[in-house]
Amino acid sequence: MIKRWLAQYASPFALDKMGIMGMNRRNISYISRYNPRRLYPLVDDKLQTKKIALNAGVTVPDLVGVIEFQHQVSRLWDMIKDWPGFCIKPAKGSGGKGITVIVNHDRKNFVKPSGKTETIDDLERHVSNILAGLFSLGGKPDVALIEALINFDDVFDGFSYEGVPDTRVIVFKGFPVMAMMRLSTEASDGKANLHQGAVGVGLDINTGRAIRAVQFNLPIRYHPDTGRDLLELKVPYWEQLLSLSSSCYEMSGLGYIGTDMVLDKQKGPMLLELNARPGLAIQTANGAGLVPRLHKIEKLGKKFTLPPEERVTFSRKEFATEVV
User: Fold this and answer.
1) What is the pLDDT of residues 192-203, one digit of tens each?
2) Which domains are assigned to the chain?
3) Contacts by 197-202 with C-beta closer than 8 Å and gap 24+?
4) pTM given for the model
5) How far apart are alpha carbons 297 and 30 in whole angstroms?
6) What pLDDT, in 10s, does the model give residues 228-264?
């Protein structure tokens, strides 16, 4: 285990020696090199991502409705009134900004994971802000998506506070190279966003078992709200989840992506969204750097091609961190 590698005053030389990838290297050596810009709209727009996923036979959350123009905002009530829970999100948002999760309502008060309530006027105002580009990349006009909530598997009881936990897998040239689970907390308002206070749990790429956990970049052992031992976490259907993540390489055409997966009680693993510029906090959660793993894939060469299932087998063997 790397000791205190994320310390505030760690030198760039020491981090480089540990294989920690910084933002400049990520942007220049991997995002710019392996992600053609013409394909960015497929992942920067969550509606487009949903469309290509459905065309590829990839399971995604049900779409309740789409609001594209201000004059359609008044239709929100008709879209959501028969759904006990739902999620409103900007199609072009990033970093969890602009996402509002409603877990239940009595047709008057709409309850968020934190217990706070919103009115239909509040929700309509939020949708209007989404359309105006308040949460989108570059502040450009956006579209509001309303999706059904995930019925997350009972196996995660106590690991997440109210919100649905998701699994981020970094996929490079079709090979899953590093994974973590993001668990919502009271501080993150039920959202699985590390910058807002969610817990990041590093996962062994071979087994899906927890190897380390952090909150606000600092190591923790127990969930801050539920007290659950985070090192007891193990993601079921792990091989299926990795295969689904791996297949997003062919689906998107992007060489370096973050795939966000969720586990639904009825539908199993499903794709939540793709990210062409995945963050680097996954290294903190795993206590390991991405660079050595990425180099190993690059050394395979362009002619080394395998189907998703065999790429998963390779990664599980080469990047295992847990002693079985």
Assistant:
1) 888 889 999 999
2) 12-45+52-58+153-318 (3.30.470.20), 63-148 (3.30.1490)
3) 199/223, 199/224, 199/230, 200/281, 200/282, 200/284, 200/285, 201/230, 201/233, 201/285, 202/282, 202/285, 202/286, 202/287, 202/288
4) 0.89
5) 12
6) 999 999 999 999 999 999 999 999 999 999 999 999 9
